Amino acid sequence: MIDDIRENCFKRISLLTLCCTGALVEKKHHILPILEKRYQGPLKHDGIPAFALIAAKVDEEEKDRNAVLDFDEGNFNYEALIARTYEYPNGSPNTKPLAKSTSSMKISEAMGATSAVPPLVDRVRAIVDGKMRTMADGGIFQVCPLSLAIDEARRLYPRRPLGVILNLGFNDNEEKFIERTITTARMANPNLHFQRISAEEITGIFSASETDLEKVAIMEEEVKQWMADTPRVRNLTKLTLKKLFETKPRNFKKKKDEDEVSNSKMTVKKKKDEDEVSKNSKMTVKNFRSKLTLLKMLFETKPRNFKKKIDEVSNSEKTFKNSKDFLRRSSVRGEVHRKYSKLE
Predict the structure, then answer these.
(1) Does residue 287 share a domain with residue 212?
(2) Of 64, 88, 99, 214, which alpha carbon lies 20 to 30 A from 258's?
(3) Do residues 77 and 67 lie in contact, with contact meaning Cβ atoms separated by under 8 Å?
(4) Over the stretch 160-186, which tens digit does the pLDDT of each residue have?
(5) Shared-domain flag, residues 171 and 234
(6) C-alpha–C-alpha distance, residues 251 and 309, integer Å
(7) Same domain? 130 vs 239
(8) CB of 193 within 8 A of CB of 239?
(9) In a domain, 151, yes or no
(10) pTM for this prediction
């Protein structure tokens, strides 16, 4: 397919066509028809997650406030758009993304848009998320969208740290931005392993839009030889591959199902916790009412006069003592009476 694109599209570059149509390649030799013959399905699928950066604008008169690039004096406002093959799982961060994203397009449209390098070929027009959009290669925003890749990984795998990033580049124009991005990412992922492979001393000799198949093959062989002959690159690549493949391959569909089951369990647990809290709240209210009733019973009687009570006890003791004296005197008097009777 790549060879077909080179033969039928890139090799038909003409400055005359650029002057007449605004693109170096005529519309009949556009990349999109070649892609549509092979790729007819939707962009979203259950395979390995992937995304591409696109520059897009909505074909409407009103301006998009988030547009960051104008091609023709403000009449064409473009913004970064991520074309992704996946959906975000439940529990994905709700923070504002670095760029808008969608999976609502055909795979041929996404591939054609990322290949529509202005002014090489004409832009791709397609309906995305219910709106007609004009799309072009996202390289006009960022050639190496590493920050977007990290942000997408954080949303796709919210409960997993970043492990390995292997970055392939054609030149070192964005080296400082890449280093800044990795330094920031390592603040949250201290064990992150990063490697960038960029053989600029070789690729710099060739053009990024090279269409000659023999020259492209020569460049590929020279880059392979450079990687094999450079100890630092060779050793770092071995370490990167070891880290990448030291774990078992992941079944992404199974992982998606597991995430859904996990989210269902979390929902059930949350409902159970809410029921438990509700039950405890009802018990707390019931206990509070019981205590309130008890306090009411305690304080609804009149207050006692403790001094009066002490006086009553004291009087009772005196009465009891007087009774004992009376009985004792009565018994003595009775004894005297009996003795007196005997004498008589």
Answers:
(1) no
(2) 99
(3) yes
(4) 889 999 998 877 788 888 999 999 999
(5) yes
(6) 86
(7) no
(8) yes
(9) no
(10) 0.63
